Amino acid sequence: MKVGDAGLTAVILSGGASRRMGSPKALLPIAGTTFLGRLAGLLGSYCQPVVVVTGEHDREIRAAFAAQEGIRWVFNERHELGMLSSLQKGLAAVPKDAAGVAFLPVDSPALRDETLAHLGDCFRRRPPGIRIVQPRCGDRRGHPVLIAPEVAGAIFALPAGAQARDVTRAEAAACRTLYVETDDRGTVEDVDTPEEYAALAGMWAKGSV
């Protein structure tokens, strides 16, 4: 799958405070780049544009990527309200003619290129009535979640205090979700603490990611 084949826009959520990590997760080094650098490059190969939603660390993150093109920056001034608030800000920046949205948090940098390509192909070829394509590793549902415009609209309309999973669970219950089985643990592993980061870095160094 090449850029534009699925008509997807990417939304990377990077609005959190990263308090448990102690520094912005978007800027943590990995594979010769950073969490955000890797995800923006990976998603940018399949999605246009790549929307990055920032929050508490907006200035630091933007300064680090000042020279990088292809990112549509969105600042969530209400980032303290949580991930739904950032996702809604990102969805508001998605082009009206987008065929769908692939969204994920910035602390999931180990996603494989081939996994993303396969998910995009499944979204493009999805059967009629399917509105969500989501990876599943073992018994865990992961990211990125690929959603049709109708689902994006439903998430955008959620009230404060709700969660995106309120919509995705309803879609699954209505049999409008296609789960794509994968052994890619990068779809389900996130990094919240220095210990988890050290473990990921060690696995990457050994080539086991």
Helicity level, as a percent range?
25-40%
Count of beta strands: 10
Determine the number of helices (DSSP H or I, runs of at least 4 residues): 7
Distance linking N and C termini: 22 Å
Mean pLDDT over the residues = 92
Structural class of the secondary structure composition? alpha/beta
Molecular structure report:
This protein is α/β, with parallel strands linked by helices and 209 residues long. The protein is 33% helix and 21% strand. It has 7 helices and 10 strands. The chain has helices at residues 35-44, 58-64, 83-92, 113-124, 149-156, 164-173, 194-205; strands at residues 8-14, 29-30, 33-34, 50-54, 71-75, 100-105, 132-137, 140-141, 145-147, 177-181. The strands form 2 sheets. Strands 1, 4, 5, 6, 7, 8, 9 and 10 form an 8-stranded mixed beta sheet that branches. A two-stranded antiparallel sheet has the order 2-3. Strand 2 (29-30) and strand 3 (33-34) form a beta hairpin. Helix 3 (83-92) packs across helix 5 (149-156). The two termini are 22 Å apart. The model has no long low-confidence stretch (mean pLDDT 92).
Key traits:
globular, 209 residues, 21% strand, two-stranded antiparallel ribbon, 7 helices, alpha/beta, eight-stranded mixed β-sheet
Gist of the model:
With 209 residues, this protein is an alpha/beta fold.
Task: Tell me the layout of helices and strands.
Elements: E1 8-14, E2 29-30, E3 33-34, H1 35-44, E4 50-54, H2 58-64, E5 71-75, H3 83-92, E6 100-105, H4 113-124, E7 132-137, E8 140-141, E9 145-147, H5 149-156, H6 164-173, E10 177-181, H7 194-205
Parallel strand pairs: 1-4, 1-6, 4-5, 7-10
Antiparallel strand pairs: 2-3, 6-9, 7-8, 7-9
Helix pairs in contact: 3-5
